[in-house]
Amino acid sequence: MGDIQSTQEYKEGESIIFMPLKRASRGRTKGGKGSSGTVQCTNCGCTVPKDKAKKVTGRINLVEHTLAKELRAQGAYIASPTVLKWYCISCAIHFKILKIRSEDSRRQRGKLR
């Protein structure tokens, strides 16, 4: 499979063997914080920890492009509200917001998108 190493600690002659980690972040971004709260997936509705869910922000055009162009020429302000969407990991992979990474790259932290 790969060379995922389990860590060992020694305390007064005892050896404690921990389970190997598949990802350095354990799939979450909370670090040492406690509970981070939950959000609902926009697509399937499942409850996901907020620090594990993928957040996607976007804007909605309320007015058609040609009409908006004419209104802006006359000096009108057209609001475009920001839409916030949360996706669980399986839905984010399905909608290609995330890509499946190799074993080596899973352990590297950094921008995924």
Question: Could you explain how this protein is built, in words?
Answer:
With 113 residues, the protein is of the alpha+beta class. It has a domain at 35-106: Ribosomal protein S26 (first zn-finger domain of poly(adp-ribose) polymerase-1), CATH 3.30.1740. A two-stranded antiparallel ribbon has the order 1-2. The chain is elongated. 6% of the residues are buried. The mean pLDDT is 85. It is built from three helices and six strands.
Quick overview of this protein structure:
The chain is an alpha+beta fold. The chain has helices at residues 65-73, 89-94, 103-106, and strands spanning 8-11, 14-17, 38-40, 47-49, 54-59, 82-87.
Spell out the blueprint of helices and strands:
Elements: E1 8-11, E2 14-17, E3 38-40, E4 47-49, E5 54-59, H1 65-73, E6 82-87, H2 89-94, H3 103-106
Antiparallel strand pairs: 1-2, 3-4, 5-6
Features of this protein?
113 residues, ribonucleoprotein, first zn-finger domain of poly(adp-ribose) polymerase-1, structural constituent of ribosome, alpha+beta, 3 helices, elongated, mRNA binding
For the biggest β-sheet, the strand order reads 1-2
Q: What is the CATH topology assignment of the domain at 35-106?
A: first zn-finger domain of poly(adp-ribose) polymerase-1
SS-based structural class?
alpha+beta
The portion of residues forming beta strands comes to 15-25%
Name of the CATH class of the domain at 35-106: Alpha Beta
User: What is the number of helical segments per DSSP (H or I, 4+ residues)?
Assistant: 3
Main sheet: strands, sense, barrel = 2 strands, antiparallel
Quantity of strands, as a count: 6
CATH-assigned homologous superfamily of the domain at 35-106: Ribosomal protein S26
Mean pLDDT: 85
- What is the chain-wise order of helices and strands? EEEEEHEHH
**Poorly predicted sequence stretches spanning 5 or more consecutive residues:** none
CATH architecture of the domain at 35-106: 2-Layer Sandwich
Straight-line distance between termini? 26 Å
Shape: elongated
Radius of gyration, in Å, reads 22 Å
**Helix content, binned percent:** 10-25%
Protein name: Ribosomal protein S26E
Pfam families: Ribosomal_S26e (PF01283)
Keywords: Ribonucleoprotein, Ribosomal protein
GO molecular function: mRNA binding; structural constituent of ribosome
